[in-house]
Amino acid sequence: MSFEIIEATWNAPRRVRAVCTTRYGGCSSDPFESFNLASHVGDEVTRLAENRKFLRRRLNLPGEPCWLKQTHGTHVVNLDQDKKRRADAAITRRSGTIAVVLTADCLPILLCNRAGTEVAAVHAGWRGLVDGVIQATVDQMESPTNQLLAWIGPAISQHCFEVGEEVRNQFLARFPRANAHFKANRAGHWLCNLPGLAVDILGQLGVTEIHRADYCCYTDEALFFSYRRNHPTGRMASLIWIDSDA
User: How far, in Å, CA of 233 to CA of 153, rounded?
Assistant: First the structure.
């Protein structure tokens, strides 16, 4: 498989780099074939290390990405100050420091300010969304929300993501407009629009420029890993950093 990435299409400053990997281009074998970048899924350590080394070389990264231990929570780490990596979002204002999140259905959300001096990466599944991981990240960014841009990367689409009544009720209790992002399916089950919920949450926080990648991880088996489709499986990486050379 040839190496393939998806570059964020948004109006970010030139010095901000933002990309998402696909499952193409690595050396991992099934069920992690082939460009798995996660250490917690059961992939061979040597193959994971080779994939990460290749990522750094192919993208000419300024350093090693700051890999997180994601928990489906709301903790946000400031990569410029905190050495701890147990979090679901990361912020940096330092050029050359790479914020990254791993996903395989959940939302990767990348943020930057219009000046290109602050960036963040967010991992948001339904638990993180309903518990406020986006709000927690925006709250810790120094920039006013009307100066932020957001890019929502490849994730599971609404018609592939069925949830129970208890999930919908949690969203309705916290977000009055959430009902618009649930479509009734079989009895007691709903199709949940994670990207749509994220757009609404970002908008309510004051982020006015939001872009979305038009992909579904579940249906596009050739290009993406999907935990709901196959597990165990690998993870894609969504990375954002400030380029000191731009």
Answer: 18
